[in-house]
Design goal:
This protein is an alpha/beta fold. The protein contains 18 helices and 8 strands.
Length: 450
């Protein structure tokens, strides 16, 4: 019995070991990456349509539109989709429409509005053709790029110029840029989200792009119009993570996806635990929904070997949450039984497990220096954001922050089993990004005349 319990104590290590192996292979992949075969392409060769889906975003939409209008170049358009807002969102956007011919407003009303982000993006896709916006650009669909930006998104001014060379490879359907929290100094929770996105992109996204598997997010996503056409009349589905699902469907059709850490989009991080857990539950449930794409991915002739392994490992990673929880639920009650019925055996087991507990502590926190260093390097890429000791402290706190996925995973699984798919909208805080986040933030916005 005691041998079985001691073996059960090792089970929580298995998911962590899997992450270490996967992360190590990702780092090796970065070191062994192949030469870049991109064709020469610049932002001037492309036409960018920034699509901003909105639902009651009066607190943040003004700053987002100003940011998009400030992006250099005239080969851009901004399409704001008002998905049935009942606040001042449409009025704010309308003022920009009057001042700048590049800004357009698509208003949706009941019963079609408020059917999810995917439905709003599909409406924008149809509007590109029905309004003549796509045809009027004078470019073919391979050279028209749809850029999905959340209403709270602050896209870096150099993003189109940075992404354009990656799209020189005709196999690339979409490029995801990095994501940061512009209110990361608002508290430890916002800082942890900033670290979460940066560490994930610095290790996994940079490695996964070598296979053409980079994950697509709902903010800062650059997609060829021709790639969207290959998905049919509704490129986005009603999955809770419609961005991840679209990327997988593109890969199943033979396309590849890429990522660049050289630029990023900033968004508002959540500052309280309850909305964070609600958001992550939605993401987790959406990830589970995407398991339905596994068969299509495996049937694709272009997906094999390391690329196929990477996709499957990435899709099944949520299982690790259940494994950790089940192993703890199986081990702790057994120790409680020994404690209450066999005190001598419990003390002996506790003494024998001193070494095990020490190894457990070292195993869990051994990644802290590495994670802290990676975050420090990435966070200070453009401006000085935090010191190395501060980054190390963040790495220590990040270990505890990740345990939020344990209750989230089970809640998401329960919702999926029960068929629950409705979600309340995340409320905005209207926190303005600090000036030092953007390289050109000290420069005034250019005057744009219609």
């Amino acid at each position: 019995m005691e041998i079985l319990l001691n073996f059960a104590a090792l089970i929580p290590f298995l998911p962590i070991l899997m992450f270490l192996v996967y992360g190590s292979l990702a780092l090796v992949g970065l070191l062994c990456r192949r030469a870049d075969n991109r064709l020469a392409m610049t932002a001037d060769d492309l036409f960018f349509v920034f699509v901003v889906p909105c639902l009651n975003e009066e607190l943040v939409i003004e700053a987002s539109i100003n940011r998009l209008r400030a992006i250099p170049g005239r080969n851009t358009a901004i399409l704001v989709v008002d998905d049935g807002s009942d606040d001042a969102t449409a009025a704010i956007v309308s003022r920009h429409v009057e001042r700048d011919p590049r800004v357009r407003l698509l208003r949706r009303s009941a019963p079609h509005a408020r059917q999810g982000k995917g439905a709003a993006l599909n409406a924008a896709y149809r509007h590109l053709w029905s309004s003549g916006l796509a045809v009027g650009s004078g470019r073919d669909s391979d050279h028209i790029v749809v850029v999905v930006v959340d209403a709270d998104g602050r896209l870096e001014l150099d993003a189109p110029a940075t992404v354009a060379p990656l799209l020189g490879d005709p196999r690339i359907a979409a490029v995801q840029v990095g994501v940061r929290m512009y209110n990361r100094n608002a508290g430890w929770l916002a800082r942890m989200q900033d670290m979460e996105f940066l560490v994930f992109t610095e290790i996994y996204q940079r490695a996964r792009r070598q296979h053409g598997n980079a994950g697509l997010g709902g903010n800062g996503q650059f997609v060829r119009l021709s790639a969207l056409e290959s998905l049919g009349v509704e490129p986005w589905t009603d999955y809770l993570t419609e961005d991840l699902d679209m990327g997988l469907r593109l890969q199943a059709l033979g396309w590849r996806t890429s990522f660049t850490p050289a630029t990023f989009v900033s968004q508002e991080g959540l500052t309280t635990l309850r909305p964070l857990m609600r958001q992550r539950t939605r993401w987790y449930q959406g990830h589970l929904q995407c398991w339905s794409r596994m068969a299509d991915l495996l049937r694709c002739r272009d997906i094999s070997g390391p690329r196929a392994v990477d996709l499957m490992v990435y899709l099944i990673t949520p299982i690790t949450v259940q494994l950790i929880t089940l192993s703890l639920l199986g081990y702790l009650p057994g120790q409680a039984v020994i404690f209450t019925t066999q005190w001598d055996s419990f003390v002996g087991s506790l003494m024998a497990n001193h070494a095990l507990l020490l190894w457990w502590y070292l195993f869990i926190f051994s990644l802290t220096p590495l994670l802290g260093y990676i975050y420090w390097r990435a966070a200070n890429r453009r401006v000085r954001d935090l010191s190395l000791p501060q980054a190390m402290l963040c790495g220590f706190l990040f270990t505890f922050y990740n345990y939020v996925w344990l209750p989230v995973g089970w809640r998401a699984t329960w919702r999926l089993v029960r068929g629950q798919r409705t979600w309340a909208k995340t409320l905005r805080l209207a926190v303005q990004p600090p000036p030092e986040v953007h390289q050109s933030a000290d420069e005034p916005l250019p005057a744009i005349h219609s």
